[in-house]
Amino acid sequence: DYSHRLLGEDNDDTSAVLARILLVLAECGGKDMAEVHNAPVSLAVIRYWLERQLEGEGGSAGFLRGRLTFCSMLPMRSIPFRAVCLLGLNDGAFPRADQGLPFDLLTEKSRPGDRSRRSDDRYQFLEALTSAREFFYLSYVGRSARNNEEIPPSLLISELLDLLRSQYQLEPLFRSHHLHPFARDYFRAHSTLFSYDREAFAVAQTLAQAQHQTDQTDMKQMDVWWQGTLPEPAREIDFADLCTFFANPWKWFVRRCLGIRLDSPRAFSGVSEPFELSGLDRYSVEGEIIQAICAGQESEQIVTRLMALGRWPQGTPGRLSFADKFEELKVFVLRMSEAGLGVQLPSRVFALDLGSFHLSGRLGHLHEHGQLLTRYGTWGARDLFYSLLHHLVMLCLDEGQGQTLCLTKDRTSRFTAMDDARGRLVRLLEMYVQGCCQPSPLLAAAAVKYFKARLKSDEQETCLAKAMLELEQSLEKGREEELSLLCRGFTTEEILGADFVACCEELFPMIREAMDEH
């Protein structure tokens, strides 16, 4: 054997070491190393790699040997580590239940000091938490392998999450994995999930190509829902309608021009006590609280009124949650006060003659040095076009003077001086009239993705790819029924074609020149 010729005959002292070396070399020879590295390697590199492999071996190496330690949870192992990972924290599996024998009298009348597996597991969980110095990783089966239904975690994880929310106002970091390892999210460029599995990647590619071909075939086989044009509307336009149109042109066309509402009416749920606010109810109440804070009202006065109206959870839990929400919204109000636009002015009614158009409405966010538009929500297409339209109207009224500041929960946008405000506003009015006759080439959400990419790159293909991804995700998740209806019979490339790109390129100078902060 060549190994014996090279290393010599083994004896009792060297047999174990030699066996480990041969095992490591055999494992290395069984791997396809050419896929990773195919250049010559020096002997020093091989020696270093071999030493690291032997040092990191588990099994007979003993506890706390090597760089990674796998062990069961036992008491009194509270040794500090950079990272502590706990696996298998499933509901019902941890902490373990105390199940005694039927004839065990200790289980019937337990006393302080009696051993409890459940208490031991809770103590070990606390020890593991205090031992982690940088990372504390908790893993549990959160989805059913049969029907993908959500499964709750261990009671200890639920208690830890409640503690983070109530005492530290921290939202825990979740990472939910898919049922199959070949899900496309594991191999997307900007996904938080990742995988190095080559076989799963190949399967994901095959499934994605097949799904794309199927979707394109289905889209082509489906009947086109809308064709043709409607009569041109009157050119006397209300400013509120103009803002609503640009927030979502396709929803405007279906609802206002065709008179079709696809959302089912909300059923009356009767009188019920709210235990937790969500969705539009939370958004509406947050807006009222912000207005009350700006008016100088105290926290107790606001929460008492909301509880009396049945719009906020009752009792001590409700007051505690309101205290957290009140402090959160005070930070947003502080941002509003630091905008530096001066004292708020009364609303201004206006009427503008812009060529063949007559635009009328009201500006209600005026201050001494400009406009302050606020919305306690995530910045999106609605905020972009809403603030742009308000800014253009203000410039037309004040002859190019003033600035517009848009504050949202996650972004601050500032619109400053802009050339030819009247001409640009006329162009937006023309887009409005066109969008009332037929579906506009402008898709607001996809256009915002295009604009964001355009700020970083001049390549239209890259920007268009971002917009197409946004449209595909919207159609997959069914976010807007109007969008799905108008897209019927068209491919993504047909919807976001040359007209969409031309529209975005025409609007982009307004966005780029006006947005002072991003």
Structural notes for this entry:
This protein is an alpha/beta fold and 518 residues long. It has helices at residues 2-7, 15-30, 43-55, 117-131, 155-168, 198-221, 239-247, 249-257, 279-294, 299-308, 315-337, 381-397, 421-437, 444-456, 460-477, 481-486, 492-495, 498-514; strands spanning 81-86, 132-138, 236-238, 348-354, 357-363, 366-367, 370-374, 403-407, 412-415. Among the domains are: 71-100 and 113-171, Double Stranded RNA Binding Domain, CATH 3.30.160; 185-221; 242-261 and 351-360 and 372-514, no CATH class; 284-337. It is 48% helix and 9% strand. The strands form three sheets. It has a four-stranded mixed sheet, covered by helices on one side. It has a three-stranded mixed sheet with strand order 3-5-4. The protein has a two-stranded parallel ribbon with strand order 1-2. α7 packs across α8 and α12 packs across α13. It is extended. This is Exodeoxyribonuclease V subunit gamma. Residues 235-454 form the RecC C-terminal domain. Keywords: ATP-binding, DNA damage, DNA repair, DNA-binding, Exonuclease, Helicase, Hydrolase, Nuclease, Nucleotide-binding.
